Each structure stands twice: as C-alpha cells, then as structure tokens.
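A quick aside before the break. I want you to see a complete sequence-to-structure record at least once, exactly as it would be stored in a machine-readable document. Don't worry about memorizing anything.
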Amino acid sequence: MSSIKKYIAELIGTMILVFMGCGSAVFLGCDTFGGHLAVALAFGLSIVATAYVIGGISGCHINPAVSLAMLISKKLSVIDFIGYVVAQCIGAIAGAGLLKLLLSFDLVDLTGGLGSNGIANAGGIPGALIVEVLLTFIFIFTILGVTSDESKGSVAGIVIGLTLAFVHIIGIPLTGTSVNPARSIGPAIFAGGDALANVWVFIVGPLVGAAIAVVVFKLLQLKKESK
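That is the input. The structure line, written in tokens, reads:
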C-alpha cells in the first residue's frame, strides 16, 4: 500500500510539472525574454511546490532521470524504480492531455506542439544530445549534493527547483529543455510528427546525464572520505 501511495504521488507531481511548465510555454510563449524566463520559473516553481507536498511520500522525483540516479545510488529498489517511471509517464501524459483539452476551447498554442522538445535549434541530434546530457548532469549533480546532507533538507526543494529553472534558462532556446524523459514523452504523444520521432533523444540524453552525475558524485565522495 505504501508503494501505491508513492506511485500516485509521483503521478500527480509529474502531471503538475507538465501542466504548469509546458502550459506556461503553450500560453505565454518563449520568444520574448519575459516569456522565456516565466517558463523557466514555472518549471522550477512546480518542483518547489510539489517537493513540499509529496517529498515526504515519494521523495518527489517526478522525473525518470532522478529515479535512475536514485536507483544507481541504491536509494531506490528496482521494483520501485519501475513503478516510479510508469507513474511519472502516466502523469506526464495526463498533464499534456489536460493542456490538449484546454486548447480545444479555441485557445492558441504558441509553441505549436504542446511545449514539446525539439532538436533543430541545437544543431540536430548530436547537439541536442550534448545539451540534454550536460543540463541533466548539472541538475542531477545538484540533487545528489543537496540531498546527501540531512541538514539541508529544509531547503532542498528550493535549491532543486531553482536549479531546474537555472538549466531551463539556457536550455529553452536550444531544445526546449527536457532533462526529464517523462516531461518529453507526454507532450510528444499528443504533438506527434517530429516531436514524437525525436523523443528518444530526450529520453537517452537525460538518462545518460543522470548516470554520469552519479558516477562523478560518487568519485568525489570517495576522494573526500579518503582524506
């Protein structure tokens, strides 16, 4: 029963992230600096809000890349990893579905694709992969650092949320910023076309970035302990 509660929390949290983050892009647009910054903050603040609601239930991963990092770090079982990822993807699809529903009321999608990610502005697939690996590395590296010290627990949600906004600032004009496979899968399913064809980039990139972050963090921890 406790695992089910965790999965439901992850589903709801991811739905909120996609609805608020991608929704801000859909209805505000990202072409102006104000819109660009607002979208970055919407993603970041979604993490801050949900962290203090479901953090005590599931840890508030709401991102398969974060769950992978916790699995590699042995802080999450294989069974829970699978449950988390499934719940996160369902939540992301639900969030994107709600946006699609709103757009049916003659509203305009300023992104043209429910805030889905793209590779064109990053120079194609290689550039988009590099961007996503780097940004996810920064994001996960921060999460590992702030959650490894219990004394930072009260501010962890704020730090993680601000870091997500931080990576969105540079990532939005390049790929739309994924750093989260579920966040990419949800909108891509409804957008179809190139967004769906290239969604694998936004699954592979974040997962690779997360794995590298864990390896680097563990190496640094080992060096620290050996002193």
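Two observations worth writing down. The chain has a mean pLDDT of 95. The CA atoms of residues 129 and 197 lie 14 Å apart. We'll return to this after the break.
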